[in-house]
Amino acid sequence: MKVSEALEISRKIAEDVEKAVNRIAGSREAGVTVAMGKDGTPTKKIDRIAEDIALKILREHDLKIITEESGVVGDGETIVALDPLDGTFNASRGIPFYSIALCFSKTEALGGMFFAYVRDLASGTEYHSDGKSYRNGERIKVSETDDVRCNAIIYYPDRIYPFRRIRVFGSSALEICMVADGTFDCFIDIRKDGNGRGYLRVFDISASLFIARNAGAEISSLDGDDLWKKRFTMDERFRILVSGKNLHEKLLDVL
Amino acid sequence: MKVSEALEISRKIAEDVEKAVNRIAGSREAGVTVAMGKDGTPTKKIDRIAEDIALKILREHDLKIITEESGVVGDGETIVALDPLDGTFNASRGIPFYSIALCFSKTEALGGMFFAYVRDLASGTEYHSDGKSYRNGERIKVSETDDVRCNAIIYYPDRIYPFRRIRVFGSSALEICMVADGTFDCFIDIRKDGNGRGYLRVFDISASLFIARNAGAEISSLDGDDLWKKRFTMDERFRILVSGKNLHEKLLDVL
Questions:
Q1: How far apart are CA A88 and CA A32, in angstroms?
Q2: What is the least distance, in Å, from the CA of B167 to any CA of chain A?
Q3: pTM attached to this predicted model
Q4: How far is the C-alpha of A169 from the C-alpha of A166, rounded, in Å?
Q5: Which of A5, A121, A169, B137 has the smallest number of CB atoms closer than 10 Å to its CB?
Q6: By the CB < 8 Å criterion, does B157 face chain A?
Q7: Tens of pLDDT, residues A37-67
């Protein structure tokens, strides 16, 4: 599949999902649980609406799709990781901070990605990367700060950090893109469950990681390990640090 | 001053500030520091624009105004506490979460408030209270949950808490209103500086506290003390807990 085709498909999906989601965002109906997702979290009505629209379009193409609610669908050579609605809580409460994220990969590993797309469904702001990264068509790059007294997004602070400012908006795909474009200096997710596993799934973050990397970000696990050999599977979980190159080592020391 | 007049003035200010602020929100110009505010924090250009518009309208009336950038202005009997732009960082970066807050009081103490107004300047959502509290004209009330595994806004977590979900959006006036209308279960600010003083100023929170109280919220310091005898002064600082009544005592224990 060509990059131009991936962009065209992504944009069509995002526009259709945006219309449908915004029709019920903030309504009581939006947040009704309709099923249990294949990822083990409850599927809300607004998630289902978003995924149905996205899958209908994706299934017109020869793809293997990995998605939050339905798991793995199709058996094409090109892999698509899809989060049809990232920030379900916000969308269902009418908080204008939720997105759709999808990426295309030639291989089963994150390193095989060749195209990624994230759209802020409340504002319509569009991020994508074809190797270079863009916000509404304009090239973006990460911040160059080397000062840990920085503007951080962190899930969740568990002690006092040196950060100047902390934010938690509730859509990691969009928040990682806001590191890609320099709005924030870093995105950190240190959460772990009782077994020490992280919370982020592959479809939550792969698209935005590709966008951030191609905007100059350094990306790693909390131990500093590379993530690009990780695979597009339902059961992978991540704890990650995304920042500019001048800050990455310093943040690893802080965390 | 009558409540109807306070609403009319507030709405006129908010509409004018909204137009002006949204014209430069997200631009480089918005975040340029133009002076040092009377509160001791830098005044950005976007703050100055908002305050100039608000003060021009307020000064047509016989008021004593306490405001972030200019300090105390006028010597009328009715006191107005004004935050012309709460969420300056967000506004200057184009993140759609910033507000204007103002309240009217018969006395020098927070307990003298008789009208409060908060407007989400990105979405236009309007909160006000005249003794009852409203969101876009519809009565609102706080959540009734008694489960500490709740949806919390907290500046900033400094250890692991039992909350189900944590958010930090960056406009406390608006976030306290989102507790008033039940979108979130609590708002907590535990931050303190080297001298143990909080960060919230009187104009940051008084309007939204009045709205939250009249929507059924319990409001206190982190020690459980009443805040209504606190005075409208530039140097007061707050560390607070706002939640529904069923949750308040439990949260005081957790904090």
A1: 11
A2: 5
A3: 0.95
A4: 10
A5: B137
A6: yes
A7: 787 788 899 999 999 999 999 999 999 999 9
